[in-house]
Amino acid sequence: MVRPMRLASVAFLSSFAATACGGAAPSQDATARGTKGAGDAAAGAGSPAAAPPPAPADAAASGSARGDGGDAQATSGDTAQAGGAPGPSAPPCEVRWDDGPRIRLQPTDQGGSFFLDRDGDGTNDTCATFKRAPGDGTAPAAITYLRLDEGCDRSAERIVRVRPAAGGLARVTVESDDQVQTLAGLPLPVHLAATPYYLLDRTPAAYTVTRTCDVPARVAAKAPPRRSVTFVYDGDPCKGPSPLVRIEDDRDGDGEVDTTLRFEWDDTGRITTVARADRNGAATARVRYDCGR
Questions:
Q1: Which domain holds residue 222?
Q2: Looking at the domain assignment, is residue 132 inside a domain?
């Protein structure tokens, strides 16, 4: 079985740029860090991301950060949409976690590539290419296909396909050898290189989604364990653009938050940092938009 966290990181990060996600291998969170499997992200991206991974940005992007202590990602742009983040802008080029993982993104008009260095030693451990559906210019395009090459030896260990499902969720199918795993992905209201997904174990039919003015407010499992994911915004989504600043994931339905993702934006509406905390520890990713300059 494919680790949701890893897929999330791929999805979330991919789309993020990023992870979404979610992540690197350690815990199953939702935002993807190039090494934890984000159990929900994925962007990719998502997460899983899920879209092509984003590039962590230089936390000091432009302007001061906003958010309720959360950290959100965004895109700079001058187009505002009710409930969501500001309009689309140039995608990030790198996402770097303070505990090692680094993701570089090379977007194209139809999709792009991303490269994951899990331990920050300068060598790519996973290479991937992705495709996305045509966008309408007002929102990020959705990732439809992701090819993961573990070891960067030009072989495909995993193929990820994303398709729309009922209830506003996406059906994320992961093919690996002779195994096929189906996960649910929730498109996040964030503008990046592609729509990031928060990855969830089980299929889309296992969850219900509650929305507030077209943005997700809560996702809940229909049967035990009753996983519950809550989305917190900076402002009222019904009154105008309200950046996503926090995601709280109660994985086992016991009323305690197991994983928290916080997003921080700069004054131009670009995500600058993503902070992940779970019972195994915490890490922060910086997002860069100026690679090569």
A1: 4-288
A2: yes
The C-alpha atoms of residue 278 and residue 70 are separated, in whole angstroms, by 15
47 with 7: CB under 8 angstroms? yes
Successive 10-residue mean pLDDT values, the chain, 293 residues? 43 38 31 34 33 30 30 30 50 88 88 90 93 69 88 92 91 91 88 78 95 94 96 93 93 95 88 91 91 68
Residue 226: inside a domain: yes
Task: State the pTM of this model.
Answer: 0.73
- Round to whole Å and give the CA distance between 272 and 163: 29
- Strand segments, DSSP code E, in the chain are 94-97, 102-107, 111-117, 126-132, 143-150, 158-164, 170-176, 179-187, 197-200, 207-212, 215-221, 228-233, 244-250, 259-265, 271-278, 281-288
Task: Report if residue 293 sits inside a domain.
Answer: no
Domain count, the chain: 1
